[in-house]
Amino acid sequence: MIAKSSGKLLLLAPLLLFLGLAYVVPFLGIVRWSFTLPEPGIGQYRAVFSDPLVQSVFLRTLRICLVVTAASLLAAYAIAYVWVRGTRLQRMLAEFCILVPFWISVLTRAFGWLALLSNRGLINTWLEAAGITSEPLALARNELGVIIGMTHFLIPFAVFPIASAMRSIDERVLLAARGMGASRSRIFWTVFVPLTSGGLIGAALIVFVFALGFFVTPAILGGGRSVMVAELVYLRIFQSPDWGLGAAISVILVLFIGVLLAMMRRFIKPAHLVG
Amino acid sequence: MQSSRPGPVLLILAMAVALFLLMPLIAVVPVSFTPARFLSMPSDTLSLRHYQALIDNPAWAHSILLSLRIGILSSFIATLLATLFGLGIWMYQPRFSALLIGFVLLPLIVPPVVSAMTLYFLMTTLSAFNDWIGYDTWIGVALAHAVMITPFAVVLILVALYQVDRRIDLAARGLGAGLATRAFKVIVPNIKFGIATAALLSFVLSWEEIGVTLFITSVNAITLPRLMWMGLRDNIDPAIAAISVLLIIVTAIILALGMIVGKRRRDVH
């Protein structure tokens, strides 16, 4: 018995200790900052809930995250369907299109969108050359650019749980529906889609939670104009040193996500995070 | 399977999504050949000056070497810790497995900006005690990356472990194998592909990590993404396009090879 528990400890303890010391303990330090900087008390939390600027940032973040989640789910569903149920060639092409962006850095991808969307970018150059527009359209450095860039980043994360739900559908259920005379589109909408709802909810949660904490893509594609919550933390720490407020926002974000995930935990499967 | 191949509507939609996914990666190619000093489309002449700039400016080579070093160290730490942890969960199935797994996934679930602040706190604290590990040092960055990438390694290794037949471990135990033999001579060889994938993904994630790196480096530990970030924020430097093209090509080749090897493996089994 002693040997058994010592072996268990030997294997489990290193990672738990590492994360405890390098992650949990410092996070408690952040919590402390939120109550002590610049002066002890709950002043920073009061500021978060009363400052109209902070509130407008929270609202914008929520709005962008919802739009991005909806767009990512729709796009992911279409390509996941082809990845799971397409012909051999279609499956391979879909897999390539999903995995290549997944493995490429967020910076490269954000830069790619700048190359497409900025004033001297591909799209505006073409539109002007074709005589369709006379001045560049504002596609980047605004909220639209942020939504496009974030959706692009998050589609692969939405594909994995959806594809996994699609794979686990029992083929005989679909055959039964067909045998009873249901049309293709009826089978899709009333049998297939409902059977993947667990995967859809899991995907929505992952995308929404990831979108909340984003700051690299918004910082590059938003051009400082449509600041989201995570970028606000970054700015509060590095530009207008207000560590207490940054810490308080961080703590609120973590609490919010913790509650959200606790409520929805049955829809999350860790294996879905890496495809 | 044949009964419900994607219909025309879904196929068109999926093709649009595929195009959307690849578009920004393709768009950097023409930009990288612009003769201008700013982000633009080349109009009549193509130029390799931005590729030349990657060679001429030693900062790029420095940051690439630094990122390699950090990637290797952090991937090693993450893979090692994740493998031990996965073995512990799989072999002993402790009562609070789900809770333990949830705990080690924290750095993945918590918003990156909060993790970044947390690790900033850790690094500045460590810097107060020593010069080697802490804020703006390469070992400090590697440690911080290890924290961030371990969850991914844990997930990949657990997925690999769940496919192992428990009977081989029972057989080894029945034959009198001790813990170390069971873990490293029986189970690990059966998940070596999963471990290799975890190490590779860990390396790539560290190689491209920017969120945390931004917070914990200033002038010394300038990783490749950190250098790219500096070129992206102020005036967009087309050298970023050149380095992006190279990174995309390398990634696509590795991935295509991985897909071919993976297919062959699946065919063998």
TrEMBL record, chain A:
List the CDD domains hit by this protein, alphabetically. TM_PBP2 (cd06261)
Where is the major localization of this protein? membrane
Domain ABC transmembrane type-1: from-to ranges? 58-264
Q: Which residues span the membrane?
A: 61-84, 96-116, 144-166, 187-216, 243-263
- Please verify whether the record's keywords include Translocase: no
Q: Note the superkingdom of the native organism.
A: Bacteria
GO BP: transmembrane transport
Keyword annotations for this protein, in alphabetical order, are: Cell membrane, Membrane, Transmembrane, Transmembrane helix, Transport
Q: Can the keyword Glycosyltransferase be found in this entry's annotation?
A: no
Localization, per the record, is: Cell membrane
- Membrane topology for this entry? Multi-pass membrane protein
Which InterPro entries does the record cross-reference, listed alphabetically? MetI-like, MetI-like_sf
GO (cellular component) term, any one:
plasma membrane
Protein family (similarity comment): Belongs to the binding-protein-dependent transport system permease family. CysTW subfamily.
Which named protein is this? ABC transporter permease
Organism of derivation: Phyllobacterium phragmitis
Automatic annotation (TrEMBL), chain B:
Extent of the signal sequence: none
Family annotation (InterPro entries): MetI-like (IPR000515), MetI-like_sf (IPR035906)
Question: Which UniProt keywords are given for this protein, alphabetically ordered?
Answer: Cell inner membrane, Cell membrane, Membrane, Transmembrane, Transmembrane helix, Transport
* Cellular component GO terms, alphabetical: plasma membrane
Report domain ABC transmembrane type-1 positions: 64-258
**Record's bilayer topology term:** Multi-pass membrane protein
Q: Which Pfam families has this protein been placed in?
A: BPD_transp_1
Keyword flag Cell inner membrane: yes
Indicate the transmembrane segments per the record.
9-33, 70-92, 99-122, 142-162, 183-204, 239-261
Q: Name one GO biological process term.
A: transmembrane transport
Its predominant location is membrane
Q: Where located?
A: Cell inner membrane; Cell membrane
Superkingdom per UniProt? Bacteria
Q: Which SUPFAM superfamilies match?
A: MetI-like
Q: Which family does it belong to?
A: Belongs to the binding-protein-dependent transport system permease family.
Read off the PANTHER family from this record: INNER MEMBRANE ABC TRANSPORTER PERMEASE PROTEIN YDCV
Under which name does UniProt file this protein? Answer: ABC transporter permease
Q: Which organism was this protein described from?
A: Phyllobacterium phragmitis
The record lists the lineage as: Bacteria, Pseudomonadati, Pseudomonadota, Alphaproteobacteria, Hyphomicrobiales
